[in-house]
Amino acid sequence: MYKAKEEQRIQLRENVRDGTGLIFVRHLLEKAETLGITTMCLVMTINPGVSIGPHSHESGVDAEIYYIIQGEVASGDPGHEVLMKAGDVSFTGNGHVHFLENRSEQAAEVFAIIIRQK
């Protein structure tokens, strides 16, 4: 399957997971286009001061991968955070909690994919 940039769905999401601000979302692939293996496959543009609130990925249900394309974001769980920069990747599953927040002065681009666990 091939999907041109012009065919990808664009969305503005506000206060994601009780976070703050607007996130520009480009849906690279929809759930049906990945045979249900993913529930989300997208690139987010996260402006300074914008965040995704803490949320979990339940054990045996799903897991999320963040890959930082450009910029930097704080991530991790509320008690243990890290500063992720371009090229860094994280994996959250097994009931763990994570968040994402751009505390820098420049927009960040983040690839995110939620995969279904079997």
Which terms summarize this structure?
118 residues; mainly beta; 4-stranded antiparallel β-sheet; single chain; 0% helix; 10 strands; globular; Jelly Rolls; 6-stranded antiparallel β-sheet
Q: What can be said about this structure in brief?
A:
With 118 residues, the protein is mostly beta strands. The protein has strands at residues 9-14, 22-29, 38-46, 51-56, 62-70, 72-77, 80-85, 89-92, 97-101, 108-116. The chain has a domain at 34-40 and 58-116: Sandwich (Jelly Rolls).
Q: Please state the second-level CATH architecture of the domain at 34-40 and 58-116.
A: Sandwich
* Major sheet characteristics: 6 strands, antiparallel
* CATH overall fold name of the domain at 34-40 and 58-116: Jelly Rolls
Taken from the alpha-carbon principal axes, the silhouette is: globular
Write a structural description.
- This protein is mainly β and 118 residues long.
- It has a domain at 34-40 and 58-116: Jelly Rolls (Sandwich).
- It contains no helices and ten strands.
- It has strands at 9-14, 22-29, 38-46, 51-56, 62-70, 72-77, 80-85, 89-92, 97-101, 108-116.
- The strands form two sheets. A six-stranded antiparallel beta sheet has the order 1-2-3-10-5-8, with no helix packed on it.
- It is globular.
- The model has no long low-confidence stretch (mean pLDDT 95).
Topology:
Layout: E1 9-14, E2 22-29, E3 38-46, E4 51-56, E5 62-70, E6 72-77, E7 80-85, E8 89-92, E9 97-101, E10 108-116
